[in-house]
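Thread title: Can someone regenerate the structure for this chain?

I was given the following input by a collaborator and told the matching structure tokens would be attached. They weren't. Posting the sequence so someone can regenerate them.
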Amino acid sequence: MPPLFRSFLEVAGDRVVPTTLSKATLTDLSHALEELVLSDDAPGTVLTGFQESQHWHAERARYEALASPEHRTVAVFAQGRLGSATDVHRFTLTRAHPLAQEWFLFALTARFSAALFARELPDQEVTDEPQRRFATVWTFTPAVIADLLAALHGAARTVSDEAARTVQEAIERLPPVAPDPHVQQRFANAVIERLEASRLRWAETSNRLRTDGAPAVAMSPAEQAGPMVEHGPADGVAAAAPDEVSTTVLAATDEPVHADPTATEEGARTDPVAEPPPAEQEVADSAIATAAEPARRGHVLVAEEEAPFRGLMEALLRRDGWEVSCVGTAAEARRVIDRGGVDVALLGLELGRHSGRDLLRRINAARSGQRTACAYIADGPSAGTELDGCPVLVKPFAWQALVTVLDRLGVR
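Best answer:
Regenerated them for you:
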């Protein structure tokens, strides 16, 4: 059987135009499409493939939040050990199977259908993981997606009968449809916002190198998606290392706000640049190479409406050694907590049609009165410093304020 990506290109023909992207940018595209599925909260199916099982395990909490037995089906193809006790359908690939070499993501919902797939380019001499290059295609065209799904179904038949049946049922349940007029615009906006956030973050890093000297960890734009996986969790937002983020304020924007007053003094900033000067890149690369691994901590759930803020929180917490699950709705938060293993919940006071306070009451009631360690996140000071015995973090807040709250809850 030919490699899946080649099969896709043969089937799609001149109806699609492939482009070459770095792994970091491809990850952003995947995140944007996954967020589109979550934000619509419509019934549907997500079919995805990972090159290695380790990437699936890094993404597991995110895809379990996507999955809902009565609402949304999620199926994962990957080689290696995929674990158990999850609502996600898991299909193990052999190393030699063509699907094991592919990066793909299909989203089929009542409001839109989308396909994103890529194959790593051969003969690359790249030592920087996020700079790996992939030939990439994405499309919202129903006829193209239908043909691509037929190719996927053919590949799934060589995996197992159940795999083939899962793909076939997804096609029959929600055949590809033309997207809602606003869906493609929302997807494009999400991708552009991520690229703009990356540019702004690099400008911040560059300015700090000029004004403060080299920080403990400085990142190039390719590393700003946090821990990189085949297409994975971190909402694509980067952060500084834990021991240097005391000057970072977590704000409800795409860009970190720095508490250091010298950062806005005359002459402290220059026009943002797309690429770092060679000397600064050398400092950044040296800092990255010598950064210590953080201590492993517990599992934290971040339930917050604003995707950029979730991404920043996730990147900071992961660099501090936490396992992180980030969701945008109360329903997704309940599913993550119901699966167990959450040590602390950081809940936005506003979560769509629900409040974080109502969510916590329902969670504690379902757990027979066993209290969940929790802190609330508020958009303004009107919430006070404590609600229902739980501390309140008011945006924008400093990293040290979050550390203090985690220490107070006894989970750090």
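The domain at 220-412 is CATH 3.40.50.2300 (Rossmann fold).
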